[in-house]
Amino acid sequence: MFTMKHKGWAASLIIMAMVAAGCSSASPGNTPAEEGTGTGSNDQVTIKLSSWYAKKADNWDVVIEEFEKQHPNIKVEFVSAEDNNSNEYYKKLDLAAAGGDDLDVIMFSNMTFLSQRVELGMIEPLDTYLDNDNVDPSAEYNSDTSIDGTYYGLPGKSSTFFTIINEDHLKEAGLELPTDWTWDEYMDYAKAMTKSEGGKTRYGTYFHSWPMFAYFVTNTGSQENANLTTDDGTTANVDNPLVRKSLELRLRGEQEGSATPYSEVISQKLNYRPQYFNQDTSMIVMGSFLVPELGGTDTVPANFRSVFAPLPKMNAEDEISSNVGSDVLSIYSKSKHKEAAYTFVRWFSTEGIVLQGKAFPSWKDADLNQVLDAMIAGTKTPEMIDKESLLYVLNNTKTTSPKVAVPYHAELEKIYTEEFDRLMLSGQDLETTIQNAQTRIQKVIDSKS
Fold it and tell me: Are 297 and 164 contained in the same domain?
């Protein structure tokens, strides 16, 4: 569990500059005088919404137009490179904060990136705003965005993991669409759908280069101790059955030739989108954020139908479950328009994201069937998305919110990935990999105490 006592974690020079620039948190009751908040004043204010999304392609223009219509005293300026590259976005965000730029609403792609900036005092606590608004986030959203019991943001889209399968390849292999299965059965399917022809192999599955796919059985379906540390942040969490199973599955995919070789994923810098859309792989485990693309876009057409299966389970008797993640919308601690920023954050996290029609909301009151209909209708070829199997997966998957990773989580993932690379590329055995990673990560944890 992330606790505010963790100091000294490896930070970039940019982050250090932010600290020097004095990014400090202020409580809602002690905010600076605001030039009209848009909620209790006739003065019009403009708030900046910082993101990495494309404004028109992701319907932010529609969202902003409707918000401004409902809140005529608040204008929203959309600030984004519009390249869908969140990693570059964080670099620019930190530079903007260090340079004293005006910021108001800040989006984060997951809780780890948020927690890092909470540690630096960049983010406004929302508890007082929520109390004044009679909002209980745990009752209204399926994603937990609290850190040590304090809310520093509200969730936007909800991203659960499940299996996406090329229906043509499934039928070609004579397989039934699974409604409940284990990871071992998943790899059986991958083997059955693998096909070599004319010197080219179509692999049954593809595991992306994200570090989480090196310990995915833990990261996608386990609520407790789902990170590389235990939830209290005091102990390395590599030497456990779920991580071990993840590594065994990755090795099986290599040995049987049913998964895209890891060496190719790394050396060719492969990406899951072209691998799946170009039919170089038959099946991937990915988040629900990918659904709108499965019906085709202006740049990438959908040439086959996608069907959906639940996230596989560790054991047959386990329930179907998936960790749920989300974008998070927060307020900059030095914003001059915090009330107006909160008004937008709260509105977007409910009706705004439903109106957007591009993602599944974290808001529990949203009509899932209506959301899915709008999402599918907004694609180029809606018939390429099998709504029936997708609804089954969504309605039968228990979503869980794991504890937020420690703020130096990226440092731990780097260590783990180094040992994983030795396993997959240099012939290091499984036990040595686990023990090396466990020892090295524990050493880092101890140094942060």
Answer: yes
